TrEMBL record:
InterPro entries referenced in this protein's UniProt entry, alphabetically: Epimerase_deHydtase, NAD(P)-bd_dom_sf, NAD(P)_dehydrat-like
Entry keyword GTP-binding: no
Family, as annotated: Belongs to the NAD(P)-dependent epimerase/dehydratase family. Dihydroflavonol-4-reductase subfamily.
Pfam families to which the protein is assigned, alphabetical: Epimerase
GO molecular function annotation: oxidoreductase activity, acting on the CH-OH group of donors, NAD or NADP as acceptor
Signal sequence region: none
The keyword Amino-acid biosynthesis is annotated on this UniProt entry: no
The protein, known as: NAD(P)-binding protein
Taxonomic classification: Eukaryota, Fungi, Dikarya, Basidiomycota, Agaricomycotina
Residue ranges occupied by any NAD-dependent epimerase/dehydratase domain in the UniProt entry: 10-262
Length: 336
């Protein structure tokens, strides 16, 4: 019997977000009832309309307002009666002090775990972590990576950072990596210390590409949008990494809730390495009228060489959406 059978109630935090929107869609398509948290109920109709276009049964969809991702009380209200939780949302920054984000993310992690521990119906909580909780790009060395690895280097850089370091363009990515390292470590530590009746799974996606279900390009889908517009900002500054189609990411979150064998695991959510040149070529082939950035020389234009053990996700999903299909579908949903 699956950890959480079909028709159970699943809570998806931040359901309007890029990855969370696909977690919600995949859950509906798998036969679950879904409760999505939103900062404002004003976006409810947009979400329903977006899901309806993909054939989802929106009669199984409900919403709850949650505007404080550090509030145990709000989480308790959101997960009341739920069988499973996918905590995808990342706290925003304190106004004027974005370096508070890592602390906020840890607080959010602990708050939802505390709330879940007081809700007898909860059987499993799935957290959206990130590949940067293991290592920061670039991966120009053929370095083997497993679910046992942690990005301690990012944490160390953060702890000794100077004000000058905070002015560097790379500071935002370091902050994001530290956010994911600290919040995921906090989850595992809390589980070890409290031993609740539910278990957890953490999903570690790399760069997400694939359809945007509503609104404008967000997160890494914006990389494809910018490149298709001829903007070389990402092709020249963002190191090549591994990718995952956001539809596979959504399905993997749902499988992490439903498959008993996945309980207690850290799961790499990465289909394979990509290069910026392969993305540029794919866009040129499918949309020959676009004025694209030039191909990128040297290692920046080559595929990521990290050796990631994605065997658990590969077995669970049964295969991956190709990079080419993912890039093309991203561009099409953005109007190209």
């Amino acid at each position: 019997m699956p950890a959480i059978p079909a028709d159970s109630l699943i809570v998806v935090t931040g359901i309007t977000g890029y990855v969370a929107s696909h977690v919600g869609l995949a859950a509906l398509q798998a036969g679950y009832r879904v409760r999505g948290t939103v900062r404002s109920l004003g976006r409810v109709e947009e979400v329903k309309e977006g899901y309806s276009k993909y054939g989802a049964d929106v009669s199984k969809l409900e919403f709850v307002e949650l505007d404080d991702l550090e509030s145990e009380a709000q989480f308790a209200n959101a997960i009341r009666g739920a069988d499973g939780v996918a905590h995808v949302a990342l706290p925003g920054s304190v106004p004027g002090d974005s370096d508070e984000i890592p602390k906020q993310a840890v607080n959010s992690t602990i708050a939802i775990l505390h709330a879940a521990s007081k809700e007898p119906s909860v059987k499993r909580v799935v957290f959206t972590s990130s590949s940067v909780a293991v290592i920061s790009p670039p991966g120009f060395k053929e370095q083997p990576l497993t679910d046992k690895d942690w990005n301690d280097a990012a944490q160390q850089k953060w702890e000794i950072a100077t004000e000058k370091d905070k002015e560097k363009p790379s500071w935002g990515m370091l902050r994001y990596a530290v956010t994911k390292v600290l919040s995921e470590k906090a989850a595992w530590k809390w589980m070890e210390e409290n031993k609740p009746t539910f278990d957890i799974v953490t999903i570690l996606p790399n760069a997400n590409f694939g359809p945007v279900l509503w609104g404008s390009a967000r997160s890494t889908a914006g990389w494809i949008q910018a490149t298709a517009h001829g903007d070389g900002t990402y092709t020249t500054n963002v190191p090549p990494q591994w990718y995952i189609d956001v539809r596979d990411d959504g399905r993997l979150h749902v499988l992490a809730l439903s498959d008993p064998s996945l309980g207690g695991k850290r799961i790499w959510a990465a289909a394979g390495p990509f290069s910026w040149n392969s993305i540029i070529r794919t866009l040129h082939k499918e949309f020959p009228w676009l004025q694209l950035p030039p191909e990128v020389p040297g290692a920046q234009g080559e595929p990521d060489r990290q050796k990631i053990d994605n065997s658990v996700a590969t077995k669970a999903l049964g295969g991956w959406i190709s990079l080419e299909q993912s890039v093309v579908d991203t561009a099409k949903t953005l109007g190209f």
